Amino acid sequence: MKIGLYLPHFSEGWDGDDPRWDNMLETVRAAEEAGFASAWVIGHHYLRFEHGRPWSLWDPWSVLAGLAAATERIELGPLVSCTAHTNPALLARTAATVDEISGGRLILGIGGGYFRAEFEALGIPPERRVDRFEEAVQVVTGLLRQGAVDFSGRFYRADLRLDLAQCRPGGPPVLIGASQPRMLRLAARYADLWNAWLPFSTDPVGDLRALCRGLDRACAEEGRDPAMLTRTAAVAVGVLGRTVRYGPHQMVNLGASRGEIIERLGEIEALGVDHVQFCLAPATPEGIEALAPVVEALTSGRLGPTTPGRTP
Questions:
Q1: Which of 11, 89, 102, 235 is deepest in the core (most CB within 10 A)?
Q2: Each residue's pLDDT expressed in tens, for the chain with a length of 312 residues
Q3: What angle do CA 98, 99, 104 make, to 5 degrees?
Q4: Angle between the 88-102 and 60-70 helix axes, to the nearest 10 degrees?
């Protein structure tokens, strides 16, 4: 099982402080050293919750480009970039560039967006989000996978080539975050990876099981072997007595102890998920060190007894 770290790059983070570049780089390098397989940044540009001031966020793609140049092994990606927030052809070119800088370590996470206040703050119409995404994903995948796109739709037009020599022919793998039936079908049709967002779930294993059933149905409708679509899931993990928070909202910790966290992740792996992203508190080198035994157990295959074929 691959283990990823969700990196806060916005005001207050998950520990009350504003992250600086040195903090983010130190944390990701510590994660790389500890055996984490991936590091992820939030794809938002604007966040504001009830009864609170708007958050400021560092630009996610600038952060990813910096991390791509400053790390060696760890995979990187946005979780996820809303395709409505920028021209999808330009998003694909940005992704290809960051993938080249990293030497082929980018995972391009994309989605249709959901945060209405962010659409309004950016002056982007919030209506028809899935319709827009369905066109955008064709532009993104066409340009990355074929090196050229000639598309004309209701919302987007693009006639571009990307014929530079790339470290990975076909570009980076595409991850789609989806939970509703139509988005699940688009993930089954276009994605290399799928993501379930579970940090606020009070029953992450049960909710993931239901989402996986929906994904299986979507794959059947699209005529795709579900085993060919990599499944990933984001969960919340607090260590050192910390609670994972997202603005004023408290995330639901996956377990109260290392053993319980490992057991829950064994159940998640049994559902076919082989890559998890930890929303970690504190997202610091100290937090990573505290979680190192869990990462070692996961990456070595030593999960709990609930996982078929595994022993404690």
A1: 235
A2: 899 999 988 776 656 678 889 999 999 999 999 999 999 998 887 777 665 667 788 999 999 999 999 999 999 999 999 999 999 999 999 999 999 999 999 999 999 998 888 888 888 888 999 999 999 999 999 999 999 999 999 999 999 999 888 888 889 999 999 999 999 999 999 999 999 999 999 999 999 999 999 999 999 999 999 999 999 999 999 998 888 876 667 889 998 888 899 999 999 999 999 999 999 999 999 999 999 888 888 777 655 443 332 222
A3: 150
A4: 20
CA distance 303 to 312: 6
99 vs 64: CA distance, rounded Å:
10
**Residues 205 and 220 sit within 8 Å (Cβ to Cβ):** no
Residue tagged 């159940």 (tokens) = 267
Q: CA-CA distance, 145 to 233, in Å (whole number)?
A: 25
Global pTM exceeds 0.85: yes
Check if the beta carbon of residue 5 is closer than 8 Å to that of residue 276. no
Nearest-CA neighbor of 80 among 186, 209, 163, 204?
186
Cα 89 to Cα 109, 156, 190, distances in angstroms: 15, 9, 16
CA dist 229 and 232 (Å) reads: 10
User: Would you call 122 exposed, middle or buried from its count of C-beta atoms within 10 A (0-12, 13-18, 19+)?
Assistant: middle
Encoded amino acid at 47, one letter: L
CB neighbour list of residue 111: distance below 8 Å, 6 or more residues apart: 43, 80, 81, 82, 83, 133, 176, 177, 178, 183
Cβ-based neighbours of 146, under 8 Å, separated by 6 or more: none
- 66's tokens: 């910096």
DSSP state of 9: -
